[in-house]
């Protein structure tokens, strides 16, 4: 009768030669086992299982000894070879090589360098901007060509002040409160109310000009905006580094505007309007490159599509206002 013993090869009969390393009696598993690296060379390794297996525990000293695997789980390259390195982060979408789970862009998992995310963000911004400009252009046309609307607004100046207050409240809310401009549908509600109020104010301003002058200002503003946008897309000059200079220039323009309130004149109005048109022309390039990101030093987060559309809208509206002022001052 054949007896069995537990000598490290489970189920090896006495009196027979042990199977080759890595094989069990009967040819199982098939040739090719063990695979490289599991374990080398041969199976079992010394000390696994401990003598007396399964007597005295499974295995003695704990299962497995010295941790499973040594150095932590998972190891570098998981799935794959085990080791003591942390999980790889290089090349993972939405993260950089600094540390796992850290997004230096502050975009909640968005990698703005990803081309598809950037293009989707740009399409969303320009889609919102086109809607805003369409609404504003409709108000301008209404106040320019419809005499009844023009007379009604002139007879009720309180509407202008109400629109001005609403516009400032919405603008400050979106500029200062991040949750207002990021959380839908609140961001679209505030942006819609702001666009309507700003369009009404601009319509009141254009009502004091002739139709030909308004049309000429719209045409010039359209051509300049398209040209500057194409320039911002193609140029190798990084305008995103000029934020401080543009802020100082805007502050000077504001002080200059206060001065023109007390000292009227054709010359000072032309200088003021020309400086304003030049400043907001540069702002169009600056805000466009901030939106594009990529090769530029500074870029806005992809979730700030409302803020990006608001910036470009204000740039275009201000450019149109100063162009219209230059045309009006030249007429007067």
Automatic annotation (TrEMBL):
Short name of any one Pfam family annotated for the protein: Bax1-I
InterPro entries: Bax_inhibitor_1-related
Segments crossing the lipid bilayer: 125-146, 158-176, 188-208, 214-233, 245-263, 269-286, 306-329
Example of a GO cellular component annotation carried by this entry: membrane
Membrane topology summary: Multi-pass membrane protein
Keyword Lyase: no
Bias kind Low complexity: ranges: 26-35
Key words of the record: Membrane, Transmembrane, Transmembrane helix
Ribonucleoprotein found in the keyword field: no
Biased segments, Pro residues type: 36-52
Location relative to the cell: Membrane
Spans annotated as Disordered: 1-65
Lineage: superkingdom: Eukaryota
Protein family according to the UniProt entry: Belongs to the BI1 family.
Protein's recorded name: Uncharacterized protein
Species this chain originates from: Nezara viridula
């Amino acid at each position: 009768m054949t007896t069995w013993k537990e000598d490290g090869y489970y189920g090896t009969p006495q009196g027979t030669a042990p199977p080759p390393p890595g094989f069990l009696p009967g040819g199982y598993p098939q040739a090719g086992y063990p695979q490289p690296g599991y374990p080398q060379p041969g199976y079992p390794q010394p000390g696994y299982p401990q003598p007396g297996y399964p007597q005295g525990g499974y295995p003695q000293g704990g299962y497995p000894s010295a941790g499973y695997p040594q150095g932590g789980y998972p190891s570098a390259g998981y799935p794959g070879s085990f080791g003591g390195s942390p999980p790889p982060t290089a090349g993972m979408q939405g993260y950089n090589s600094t540390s796992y789970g850290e997004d230096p862009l502050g975009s909640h998992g968005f990698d703005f360098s990803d081309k598809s995310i950037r293009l989707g963000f740009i399409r969303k911004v320009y889609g919102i901007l086109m809607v805003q400009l369409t609404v504003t252009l409709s108000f301008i046309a209404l106040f320019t060509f419809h005499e009844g609307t023009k007379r009604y607004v002139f007879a009720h100046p309180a509407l202008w002040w109400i629109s001005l207050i609403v516009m400032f409240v919405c603008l400050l809310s979106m500029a200062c409160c991040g949750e207002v401009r990021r959380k839908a549908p609140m961001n679209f509600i505030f942006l819609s109310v702001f666009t309507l109020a700003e369009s009404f104010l601009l319509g009141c301003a254009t009502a004091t000009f002739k139709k030909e002058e308004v049309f000429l200002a719209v045409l010039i503003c359209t051509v300049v905006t398209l040209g500057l946008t194409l320039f911002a897309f193609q140029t190798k000059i990084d305008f995103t580094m000029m934020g401080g200079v543009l802020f100082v220039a805007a502050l000077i323009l504001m002080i200059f505007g206060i001065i023109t309130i007390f000292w009227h004149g054709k010359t000072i109005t032309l200088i003021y309007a020309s400086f304003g048109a030049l400043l907001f022309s540069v702002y169009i390039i600056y805000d466009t490159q901030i939106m594009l990101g990529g090769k530029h030093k500074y870029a806005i987060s992809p979730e700030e599509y409302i803020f990006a559309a608001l910036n470009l809208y204000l740039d275009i509206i201000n450019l149109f206002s100063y162009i219209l002022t230059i045309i009006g001052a030249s007429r007067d």
